[in-house]
Design goal:
With 619 residues, the chain is an alpha+beta fold. The protein is built from 19 helices and 28 strands. The protein has a 5-stranded antiparallel β-sheet with strand order 4-3-13-12-11, with helices on both faces. Strands 20-28-27-22-23 form a 5-stranded mixed β-sheet, with no helix packed on it. The chain is elongated, with a radius of gyration of 34 Å.
């Protein structure tokens, strides 16, 4: 050592490696362990105490045996005072050593954000972290917010044990910077029974209807629909071999629904219809652009179920994707280190993002789906969306203001279902509480969400979505300024007044099944569309029940057709369909059934000059 190092270097090696017992090595670690202070905060008398500990750590530990440590440290400190020629009385020397030993306090490492700390330690999600000083990494997280989020999650889950909800996760992001402000991976890191060390922020789950805003935004962006369009919330069948018949969470259909309440009230059938029109692959491309890399596995297989959040994504992906809307359509990858800048690119136009914010902040538009839920009520501008997995394994909520977004997941890492809760209650309560905390911390209410620049609100018929006539009940909705004049010329044709002055509604033919089964007042315009078999769908597959085959029938429903002067002609496998030896005659509405017989079959209907056919298979 003498031949290789200087005296100072040898002293440095010794001071950094001298053993103090208790798995503590070096004076820096010792100052923290025995006195809970950094080494530059210690006094000379503290150093006298540290100097004696390595001689016999178990006996001279000032935390356990302050008197013994003091008795051995005192001569060292006296010698130090003499050598440094300090004028200190003997009483003061003894007092200083006594105070030093009595101030001993074992250091307790702060234990916040263990899931995120582990993630960053593994260097899996932060580019460039290896180039940062490994001894001092300043996170973007807010310590007070982290503690509050942890408390809110634990407190809310404690009230939900009867519902079999045992775990949850929270992530909070800064809209402007994309910085992670809070990261709660589970209710309790130390709860092994409930998988406490699993990270709920990063575990992929089905997020249910919380994914719908991205689909509706894409519909506006691609002009598949505009916000004044009416979307049909009616019984619909999608697919063939993999038949998909979506239902709303309340098992009811609402008929024609405007674009705004369809999203705000989280209706399922219109969402699936939008995805069917847009295409699964196009929607997935947008989701990938929003950072949903989890969907690269299993996204295509989820098919139209993606409209209802069937694909598995992480809470971080969902929350960061949601932040695109208050950020005017700009994607910003999440950052964990203070001052770190993530990837940035545009996903939606500014006006599309602002319209989605306008819808999700509209309390009145949520009423059809959620009533006047207190979970969404805030005194400041806010947006919310909730979701429930199709088998109730997960409930989730995302909320935001122009400055912050919060994502909350609740469920069980085991995958077991929760009981009797939809996504609009517990997680939304936590999300709202955190937004309340952030708003109070700011000391002032957030500014309102910015309105779209190239759109203007005009009166719209609340039923048809057309420009209202004097017979309509009207709401205000956005239309593009360049389309305003053309829109206002298309006055509602659904409302009319009879000779007695009574106002009635005439629905288009596509609402026949809903109109018939919902027993709605008004009438149906059977001639408003071409002749079409809406059930069964083309290439459907049915299965014969060998026990109850004599009771099985395949229902057939036909809508539209311009000719009301002639009867509907029905052909089954190329032959005129008969019952009891006579051709079947069906009056409007055209609803009938055919027997279930193994093999491939074809149904053809003819009305005047119009024909519609469908083929299906019975196995």
């Amino acid at each position: 050592l003498e031949s290789r190092f200087t005296k100072n270097q040898i002293l440095e090696l010794y001071l950094n490696r001298v053993p103090f017992g208790f798995s503590v090595e070096g004076v820096v670690s010792a100052s923290r362990y025995f006195f809970s202070q950094e080494i530059d905060q210690l006094s000379d008398s503290h150093f006298a105490c540290l100097a004696v500990i390595p001689r016999r750590p178990a006996s001279y530990n000032p935390i356990i045996n302050p008197a013994i440590c003091q008795s051995f440290a005192l001569p060292l400190y006296e010698q130090y005072v003499i050598e440094t020629q300090q004028e200190i009385s003997q009483n003061d020397i003894e007092k200083r050593v006594e105070e030093a030993t009595l101030s001993a306090k074992q250091f307790s490492w702060p234990f916040q954000m263990p899931h995120l700390i582990r993630l960053l330690s593994n260097n899996k999600m932060t580019s460039g972290i290896e180039n940062i000083n490994p001894y001092k990494i300043i996170l973007s997280a807010d310590s007070n917010l982290q503690q509050f989020a942890q408390f809110q999650l634990e407190n809310t889950l404690s009230t939900a044990s009867d519902s079999r909800i045992h775990n949850g996760a929270v992530v909070v992001l800064d809209v402007k910077t994309g910085e992670v402000l809070a990261w709660v991976g589970s209710q309790n890191w130390f709860d092994e029974a409930e998988g406490g060390q699993l990270d709920g922020v990063l575990v992929p789950n089905q997020m249910g209807s919380s994914m719908k805003p991205f689909l509706y935004a894409l519909s506006l962006e691609t002009k598949t629909h505009t916000i004044t369009d009416v979307l049909p919330d009616i019984p619909m069948e999608f697919g063939s071999h993999n038949m998909y018949i979506p239902m709303n969470f309340n098992n009811r259909y609402n008929g024609p629904v405007l674009f705004r309440p369809s999203l705000a009230s989280s209706l399922n059938v219109p969402s699936v219809m939008l995805l069917d029109e847009i295409g699964v692959e196009s929607y997935l491309d947008t989701l990938f652009n929003l950072g949903f890399s989890s969907l690269k596995k299993g996204g295509l297989e989820a098919d139209l179920g993606l409209a209802l959040g069937a694909g598995e994504v992480t809470l971080l992906e969902l929350t960061n994707g949601f932040s695109v809307f208050p950020r005017d359509g700009i994607y910003l990858s999440p950052s964990f280190i203070q001052g770190e800048t993530g990837e940035r690119h545009e996903v939606f136009s500014t006006d599309t993002a602002r319209i989605i914010c306008d819808i999700l902040s509209d309390k009145a538009a949520r009423v059809a789906g959620f009533g006047y839920s207190q979970s969404f009520q805030t005194s400041y501008p806010s947006i919310f969306k909730t979701g429930t997995a199709n088998q109730y394994q997960n409930i989730v909520a995302v909320g935001g203001t122009p400055k912050y977004v919060v994502g909350v997941w609740m469920g069980n890492f085991s995958g077991s279902t929760v009981m009797g809760k939809t996504g609009s209650s517990l997680p939304a309560t936590v999300a709202r509480s955190i937004l309340d905390f952030l708003t109070e911390k700011e000391g002032e209410l957030p500014t309102p969400f910015t309105k779209p620049e190239n759109w203007e609100k005009v009166p719209v018929c609340s039923v048809s979505g057309m420009a209202p006539s004097p017979l309509c009940s009207a709401v205000y909705e956005y239309v593009e300024k360049t389309e305003k004049a053309a829109f206002q010329k298309k006055v509602c044709t659904w409302h009319s007044k009879d000779e007695n002055g009574k106002i009635s509604i005439t629905y288009p033919a596509q609402y026949q099944q809903w109109f018939r089964t919902a027993h709605k007042t008004g009438s149906l315009s059977y001639n408003s569309s071409s002749l079409s078999i809406i059930s069964p769908s083309m290439e459907s597959v049915f299965y014969l029940d060998p026990v109850a085959s004599f009771q099985q029938r395949i229902p057939v429903e036909v809508i539209g057709g311009l000719d009301d002067t002639q009867p509907l002609q029905i052909f089954y496998d190329g032959e005129v369909y008969t019952e009891k030896g006579r051709p079947l005659e069906v009056n409007r509405p055209f609803v009938f059934s055919v027997p279930v017989e193994k093999g491939s079959h074809e149904i053809t209907v003819v009305l005047g000059d119009e024909t519609s056919r469908v083929t299906y298979l019975v196995e």
